[in-house]
Amino acid sequence: MKLTVLGKYGPYPAAGGACSGYLAEQDGTRVLVDCGSGVLSRLQQICNIQDLSGIVLSHLHSDHMADMLILRYALEIGKARGIINIESIPVYLPNAPADIYGLVTSSPVFRPVIIQDGLQADIGEISFTFREMSHPVQSFAMAVEHSGGKLVYTGDTNMNTRIGDFSKGADYLVADTGLLEKDKTDQAAHLTADEVGRIAADAGVKNLILSHIWPGYAEQDIINEAALHYSSPIMAEEMKTYIL
Ligand SMILES: [Zn+2]
Ligand SMILES: [Zn+2]
Q1: pLDDT digits (tens, 9 = 90+) for 14-36
Q2: What's the CA-to-centroid distance between 81 and ligand 1, angstroms?
Q3: Cα 64 to ligand 1 centre (Å)
């Protein structure tokens, strides 16, 4: 399985960057995981929109779904003009907040499947298992697997007891590293680099990718904080492909 980072920033992109978006590929199956601003542009550097087997949205914050609203235009206009010949794309997403869910799913080009805790779903050759996290809106981590290869993506979350168990033995952990310890508050919506390093070490993951980067941070500070607990964490790199 291949994972390409289309966008690594949150909650807004750095100059020239994109918000959360990842493409998982295996034997002709292509699944877009999250679709923040800038992701549709990046996706088309790799494949055509109609080559997508499905879309998975970890949660409905704008930095993870904003480009769904223009992907909708691309599909609607493409179908009307005969350059896109698929009826619709399955979209796995939480059904809250209800207004955003309604906005995304109001077009027939998207075929919604509601994510709930524990849901397992096969999209082509790739299987997904979802675990609810803790974030200001309903948000899901996911295990993305194919024939023994396992990648866990945290989505957005703050520290909780579930993410460690869920990440156990993963080949790759792609983690929301939205904070440094110095900026953590009681209402923190994201994991700190320190927490991510501890989770990865305790879970015994083979590779840790730091993502959901706030453009205001120096990346080396994030790497150094995670490395207090986990040796050689990897800073996500946009348009880089990781092989499981
Ligand atoms: Zn986010
Ligand atoms: Zn979020």
Answers
A1: 999 999 999 999 999 999 999 99
A2: 34
A3: 6
